[in-house]
Design goal:
Layout lengths: L4 E5 L8 H15 L4 E5 L5 H10 L9 E4 L5 H8 L5 E5 L10 H9 L2 E7 L2 H23 L5 E7 L4 H13 L29 H17 L4
Parallel strand pairs: 1-4, 1-5, 2-3, 2-4, 5-6
Bound molecules: adenosine-5'-triphosphate and magnesium ion (MG).
């Protein structure tokens, strides 16, 4: 039996590209890898769901991925009942409300088998990622003790100033102990309008800018 993968692009910080990268990966997996993909939008701001609503008028037919809006506490029930209907489920987790352990976020992290942590390469972002990375590491340890596979990686999003980004990557690997993807995503207008009806890998520019990242994610998360 094929097992459903549950992935989250998450960080306690807001505005680092969680929803954007979720949509880019989800649509590419659906289109290029023929996966049945669902995005569970657990953000009370419902950014992915609103994005879909705004796109419905622009496109005929169905989006490449399904989107459902769910309160965090109801996600477990949803996964139990409908999880097996999908190859890959992305949980879009909202930013955390404060620095203390946010129970809804922690609960959602435990439901995943893979977490990707976007970081924007400034000193502050790197520091705030420290707290979040320890939550993810804790979840990973506990899940591994129960014999579940759990993978997590950080990656640099909105990569622009090489020096800053390289420094951030070093701090994340050496001080925070967060394994990092080699590929990063550049700060590009291309990434600001992800569509739920189209895959970014269907254009030459999209392939050039997104495919190395996409391929590394597939490889590191062991998605065939
Ligand atoms: N690689 C990128 N290049 C250019 N713009 C980007 C990139 N990644 C994200 N953005 C922009 O940054 C803003 C925040 O992105 P997004 O909403 O995905 O972040 P988020 O982490 O989901 O935020 P929130 O915490 O509010 O849910 C958006 O305007 C998005 O278009
Ligand atoms: Mg978001």
């Amino acid at each position: 039996m094929a097992t459903t993968r549950v992935i989250s692009i998450a960080n306690q910080k807001g505005g680092v590209g969680k929803s954007t990268v979720t949509m880019l990966l989800a649509t590419a997996l659906a289109k290029q890898k023929k996966k049945k993909v669902l995005i569970l939008d657990t953000d009370s701001q419902a950014s992915v769901s609103s994005w879909l609503d705004s796109e419905r008028n622009l496109y005929d037919g169905e989006p490449l991925v399904e989107v459902e809006s769910y309160q965090p506490r109801k996600v477990m029930d949803f996964l139990k009942r409908f999880g097996n209907d999908y190859d890959v489920i992305f949980i879009d987790i909202p930013r955390m409300t404060d620095n203390s352990k946010d129970s809804a976020t922690v609960m959602l992290l435990y439901m995943c088998d893979s977490v990707l942590i976007p970081v924007i390469g400034s000193q502050l972002d790197v520091l705030s990622t420290n707290n979040f990375a320890s939550l993810v590491k804790e979840a990973a340890e506990e899940k591994k003790n129960l014999d579940f596979d759990y993978r997590y990686f950080g990656f640099i999003n909105r990569d622009n100033q090489r020096k800053d980004n390289e420094q951030a990557r070093k701090v994340l690997v050496n001080k925070v102990g967060l394994p990092m993807l080699d590929a990063s995503l550049k700060d590009l207008k291309l990434f600001t309008t992800p569509s739920l009806y189209e895959s970014i890998l269907d254009t030459a520019e999209g392939r050039r800018r997104f495919e190395p990242f996409f391929n590394e994610v597939l490889k590191k998360l062991k998605i065939k």
